[in-house]
Amino acid sequence: MPAISALRRTLAVIAALPLLTLAACGYGSQAKDDDTAKIAAGAEKIDGLDSVRIGYFGNITHATPLVANQKGFFQKALGGTEAKYAVFNAGPSEIEALNSGSVDIGWIGPSPAVNGYTKSGGKNLRIIGGSASGGVKLVVNPDRIKSLKDVKGKRIATPQLGNTQDVAFLNWIAEQGWKVDAQSGKGDVTVVRSDNKVTPDAYKSGSLDGAWVPEPTASKLVAGGGKVLLDESTLWPDKKFVITNIIVSQKFLKEHPKAVEAVLKASVDTNEWITAHPDEAKTAANAQLEKDSGKALPADVLDPAWESIKLTDDPLASTLDAQAEHAVKAGLLDEPDLNGIYDLTLLNKVLEAKGRPTVDDAGLGVE
């Protein structure tokens, strides 16, 4: 595989530092088990499995698994096989759990999916579906930054060196004709790598002029007086780009395709239900957030964050490929080999059964 020196350096940095994985929550803590499945009496097990362990983040960008857990959609699809849950705060820990077999299927952002896939030489995971698009914004102090050109010379936070928002911001900076050293963050703009947990307080203290961040951090900054200067969705075709994918271990996919298909069906059904019941779904997601993290989001944060996230079963594969190319252009990644990272066979089977169009893997699917 052609990804050699720079890729290894970047992966080492990302492994050492908790990766954002396109979710706006705290990072670095261990997974939190939440085994609350209720199995219907007499229901048959799928593939003979006692349980399927599903991983996700306690974050609004993971609305699909939050709602599917809260409303029991996963358990309904799995029948007599127990749906068990592990809630993560960090991308590397979810990838590690997937590799060890303590998680079978997970919701995760594109950066950790790409890093996990390339680091294993393409042997540990597959992306099998999409979940969410959008939800990333450049929020600034309106007293210091009036227009996009005013970003030059300012201190702007991203969640993590090499994470997807960091790469997107570096790419945007380059498109303005400005120069920034990707590793140090120093240059025409000072890029401050700041955990989403502390960014709102850092902004409030005045040490930051703004931040390129995902929801709900963006809405927390707006609630604190910030102004949305740019929505990243406006930079993408059709205003769509992947923020959350569904991944599975290759071993589990090979050995238990019926269970994987059941979880994918539950995901598609959940997204349909959320679309049909947006207010009830938002309440359900927030209730599960409170259960998982001990704290629900206030309305002035939840409402705008919820509106900016667009659910999608399509993994938007071409945008993941573009994100990887942006990392290459920023000097954070050598050209990675992503061939085989997708296997959308079961997702397309589920979509076809519903009479819906199939989705595309942008030429990065299994042969």
Give a quick precis of the structure.
This protein has 14 helices and 12 strands. By secondary structure, the protein is an alpha/beta fold.
Beta-strand content bin: 15-25%
Main sheet makeup: 7 strands, mixed
What is the count of helical runs? 14
The overall strand count is: 12
Low-confidence stretches: 1-35
The helix/strand series, from N terminus to C terminus, equals HEEHHEHEHEEEHEHEHEEHHHHEHH
What labels would you give this structure?
alpha/beta; 5-stranded mixed beta sheet; 14 helices
Describe what you observe in this structure.
The chain has 367 residues and is an alpha/beta fold. The protein contains 14 helices and 12 strands. Helix 6 links the parallel strand 7 and strand 8. Helix 2 packs across helix 10, helix 2 crosses helix 11 and helix 8 crosses helix 12. It is globular and about 65 Å long. The N terminus is likely disordered.
Helix-strand blueprint:
Blueprint: H1 5-16, E1 32-33, E2 51-57, H2 63-71, H3 73-78, E3 82-88, H4 91-100, E4 105-108, H5 110-119, E5 125-134, E6 136-140, E7 155-158, H6 164-175, E8 190-193, H7 199-205, E9 210-214, H8 217-223, E10 227-231, E11 242-249, H9 250-255, H10 257-276, H11 278-293, H12 299-308, E12 309-311, H13 317-329, H14 345-353
Parallel strand pairs: 2-3, 2-4, 7-8, 7-9
Antiparallel strand pairs: 1-3, 4-11, 5-11, 5-12, 6-9, 6-10
Helix pairs in contact: 2-10, 2-11, 6-13, 8-12, 10-11, 10-14
